[in-house]
Amino acid sequence: MIAVHLESGRVSVRRENLPRLAPGFARIHLLEGGICSTDLQLQRGYYGFSGTPGHEFVGEVVDAEDRDWVGKRVAGEINLACGRCGWCARGLGRHCPRRTVLGIVKHPGAFREFLTLPVRNLHPVPPAIPNQHAVFIEPVAAACEILDQLKIAKGQRVAVLGDGKLGLLIAQVLHVHGASVHLFGRHRHKMRIVEKMGVATGIVPKKPGRAWPIVVESTGSSGGLRAAIAMCEPRDAVVMKSTVHGLVSVDTAPVIVNEITLVGSRCGRFEPAIHLLASGKVRVGGLISEEFPLERAPAAAAGKLKWHMLRRTAVVFAALLLTSCSVKKYAIHTLGDALAASGATFASDDDPDLIRAAVPFSLKLIETLLAENPRQQGLLLAAARGFTQYAFAFVQEDADEAQDTDRAAAAALRARAAKLYFRARNYGLRGLEVKHPDFAARLEAHPKEAAKELKKSEVPVMYWTALSWAAALAASHDM
Question: Residue 1: pLDDT above 80?
């Protein structure tokens, strides 16, 4: 079977033997798996993890001692408790000191063709929940855990910080419960998902006041907890949902002076989560950004450019200015391939201002190198991808945020985004024409026939060309 492997931040696909079926365990064929912020933190070094990641999944049982389980579609609780200690006896197996955790601590994760879990961890998935939605059972359960930890009355005012997947799920769960929820984030298009359900939203305030009796921190960033503490009313509670690699620095004085209760919150019961998804009360369709097979996991992971690579690129660029012509061409070719293989020009990072400042340098570096070697395919791919993602992640995002307050500014930003998308498209077309002269003309006249000329290795260039072209037309239409 094939399995995704993560080690020292690098993702690969390996061939492995089927996992051994221990007593009391079931062997499960993976149907769908979900990537969450914890998986990204593992890639950055959280827990010093090495092995197969993945803990959000839906699968089909193919083997178990209890044959009644075979053929059932299941989701699984991720904590594997010993079942013998005092914590387990008290029903707190999630905190068993001997526990392993699927895809996180000493138990191979779900990003493999076949995985194993104890039968006692499994929950049948009802037909009303499709595979794509069943992947969300585990994070919805984590959102429901808040209701088991705190007494939240109907109409209780709750602020949720963070518009990532978990924040959007928490906002929905608390809203369905009857709380008066306000979701604070930075991305208008994400917050619109819960706005349709009646959840109030807003941009994270720069100077938050102590206005909220309950604040749920789910930003996934090191600064989220500080912001949550600053927003919490005296003698009330902050729920901490983010797991972040590295130490988080927090001034404890406001916590002590204002007598704020900090509540750590992790996994939750699956039963209420399954009910919410089966009933359609929690909606997750809009939270799926992309799908790909296990074999493409390394390429998907490469879409998160590590910023230390950007620093290395700067050093190489300085060296190019000093080398001879032949060495320069070789270095440009090598660097171009490295930039293409590195994936996107953006990364998950807890400092968006740093990313915003750094990415233009990377893009201009690519263009400078292209001036030396205009037909280097790796650089052309990196340019097509980089300008597309920069336009989407920053320029178009700024336009969405400005729409409600300054429509003229929003229109100007969309116009700029369209120009950047067209710029990306042109680089993509240049990349395709390296081996297919006049390909752009044939693509416009007879797209299906032109596409048949491409080889498998050229699909990434074609993908970013098509995506940037479509985005440019959409942005132009919105102006």
Answer: yes
- What is the DSSP pairing of strand 25-34 with strand 56-64? antiparallel
Q: Which tokens hold the place of 43?
A: 């890639």
Distance of CA 436 to the CA centre of its chain: 35
* Angstrom distance (rounded) from CA 262 to CA 201: 23
Average pLDDT over residues 140-157: 96
- The more confidently predicted of residues 89 and 410 is 89
Give the Cα separation of 73 and 134 in Å (integer): 10
- Tell me if residue 64 falls in helix, strand or coil: strand
Which residues face 259 on adjacent strands? none
What is the arrangement of strands in the sheet containing 79-80, beginning at the earlier edge strand?
79-80, 100-102, 106-107
Fold (CATH) for 2-125+290-296: Quinone Oxidoreductase; Chain A, domain 1 (3.90.180)
More confident residue, 241 or 288: 241
Domain coordinates of the chain in residue numbers? 2-125+290-296, 136-269, 326-475
Find the mean pLDDT for residues 131-151: 96
Per residue, the 3-state secondary structure of 308-344, as one string, reads: HHHHHHHHHHHHHCCCCHHHHHHHHHHHHHHHHHCCC
Give the Cα separation of 26 and 236 in Å (integer).
43
The pTM score is 0.64
> Per-residue pLDDT for 346 more than 70?
no
Q: How far apart are the C-alpha atoms of 442 and 432, rounded to whole Å?
A: 12
Mean pLDDT of all residues in 414-421: 92
Domains 136-269 and 326-475 share a fold: no
**CA–CA gap between residue 452 and residue 195 (Å, rounded):** 43
Q: How many CB atoms lie within 10 A of CB 127?
A: 8
pLDDT in tens, 361-401: 888 888 888 887 888 988 999 999 989 988 888 888 778 77
CA 180 from chain center: how many Å?
Answer: 27
HEC readout, 139-205 = HHHHHHHHHHHCCCCCCCEEEEECCCHHHHHHHHHHHHHCCEEEEEECCHHHHHHHHCCCCEEEECC
Q: Model confidence over 231-244: pLDDT tens digits?
A: 999 999 999 998 77
Q: Quote the CA–CA distance of 395 and 245 in Å, as a whole number.
A: 29
Q: What is the pLDDT of residue 242?
A: 87
Q: Is domain 326-475 in CATH 1.25.40.920, yes or no? A: yes
What is the secondary structure of 271-284 as a DSSP string? HHHHHHHHHTSS--
Please provide the distance, in angstroms rounded to a whole number, between the alpha carbons at the two ends of the chain. Answer: 49
Which CATH fold would you assign to the domain 136-269? Rossmann fold (3.40.50)
Measured CA to CA, the distance from residue 77 to residue 119 in angstroms comes to 10
Q: Return the pLDDT at 311.
A: 28
Q: How far apart are CA 312 and CA 350, in angstroms?
A: 20
